[in-house]
Amino acid sequence: MVLNMIVVDDSALMRLVIARALRMLGLPIGRIDEAGDGVAALAALRTRSFDLALVDINMPHMNGIELIEMIGRDAELAQLPIVVVSTEASKARLAGVRNRAIRFLRKPFDPERLLEAVVGALGGQP
């Protein structure tokens, strides 16, 4: 089984860093799509199949929390595993994310922590 993922971050450099790190982890990765905000991510999620979304919190147009809420309300997307990859430190903003059992990885991250978050989000099945 190959894993198709989407990396959602307003920084093109950070999307590149995350995608490269994912490919170096030795996971069976098929496609890694990218989106610069929640609006573009939601459009991609509704047109293509993904096994995992890696989402930043602070983005223009639709931030990561809004995106996660939209995913949760969509019957076809609600079961999508999500890893939040962000510099966000506000406990209040992160409370809703943590209540949904979404994995959280703080930027900057090391590859081992990324692997743990991805494998954990996928239920221990890479």
Provide a descriptive summary of the structure in words.
The chain has 126 residues and is an alpha/beta fold. It is built from five helices and five strands. A five-stranded parallel beta sheet has the order 2-1-3-4-5, sandwiched between helices. α3 (64-73) links the parallel β3 (52-55) and β4. α2 (38-47) packs parallel to α3 (64-73). The chain is globular.
- List SSEs in N-to-C order: EHEHEHEHEH
Category by helix and strand content = alpha/beta
Question: How can the largest sheet be summarized?
Answer: 5 strands, parallel
Shape call: globular
Q: Please report the distance between the alpha carbons of the first and last residues.
A: 9 Å
- Contiguous low-pLDDT stretches (5 residues minimum) are none
Give the tally of β-strands.
5
Report the helical percentage.
40-55%
Please, how many helices?
5
Mean of pLDDT:
90
